[in-house]
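The protein record reproduced below.
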Amino acid sequence: MDTLAQLTPLIDAVVSHIHEGVILTDSRGAILYNNQAACRLLGLSTLTSVHEIKENTGVNLPKSILRAAIDAGDKDAAARPSIDALDFEQRVTCDGITRFVQFKTRTLLLPGSTNKVRLIVLSDISERRKLEAVFHDNLNSGLITQAPQMYEITDTIEQVAPTRAPIVLQGESGTGKTLFARMIHSKSSCSNGPLVEVNCAAIPESLLESELFGHVKGAFTGAISDRAGRLQAANGGTLFLDEISEIPLHLQPKLLKALEEQCFQMVGSDKNIQVDIRIIAATNRNLRDMVDAGEFRADLYYRLAVIPVYVPALRERLGDIPLLIRHIFDRLVSRGYPDNVQFSEDVMRLLMDYPWPGNVRELANAIEHGLILAKNGCITPLCLPADVRNYSNYPHADEDHLEQQRHEIEDALIKAQGNRAEAARALGIDRSTLWRRMQRLGLA
């Protein structure tokens, strides 16, 4: 295109330094022009065609444009979109970094030419989406996060919640498995039915069968009347079995049969009871390892884990800690704690450095502990629980050591061209440790 060749220097002078990405394509999808911002937003070094973009990022531009036209009310979009200006959003993940990218597109007729080109403008709207996730947490059942791993979980939930597929949530205690279970139920086809939560670890083994399946009068000593179990209570809704790993082996075949046939018998009865329930299970143990060790039935595991979901520990998503601190603080203020309390810089460093084996539950405990012991409107290291306070051997290392550590991290990041995983390997530490040090040194 001679006209485009003449215009390219002018286009480049205008758009080469802006934050938005700019792409021009021909009718076949070949990329005629792009600026560096487009490469950066898509996580690619070069752009040659929309097919290449799809292969490397999963973003199918022709399909997305068609869908945007249909959503905009273009009845003829199945053949060719007739609506000119369109916009849509895509999630783009590259090198472990997830971005929300807004695409705005329209066709243009080049001056002095009969050939049309498609202009696509890309904008990074990640911060806007993260803020919506934080400040409008009622939309996602109270989830406070900006971690890509957690966004991936919510994506999975959006897909599987409307189905009846059993789901197993695995992760450490205090990571939010119950929160995700409630989210799944709220987005499911049985959301109008009950959500019955059972903590299998909190019920004595001798009573667990009766709690789950119910019993009839005279089934055992003390059974003075018929009593419905949790499966009956969950009929038409969702049964959430927390700490499923604690169900004894001798009960697992009966539970498996009930889940497969949606039918069971109460303790002491030979009458079948039909139910319609969706099962969600959660555990802080690795069920696959328990199966290999003979501690959990393989057939029950495969029945439950149609969709296994791993919920990451808080130390694996350190960027969420400041958000959670603010959220926990606001929640405590609503319960009557003073709202004029400040966190000292040393306290924030300690909170970022601590690995939080108890996860969000332990963080909430530490914040409340600090608020109770705060003096003169300030939470200092002495106000924190001893485990948190002593983890980093407070006070911190001297400034010379911190400066040396800062230079080492900066050098490693430069050599790795900003790739944190490679920088961590060069420093001989894992990625989460590198992230903590960057946060402490103000490099994140």
Confidence is low (pLDDT under 50) at residues 134-140.
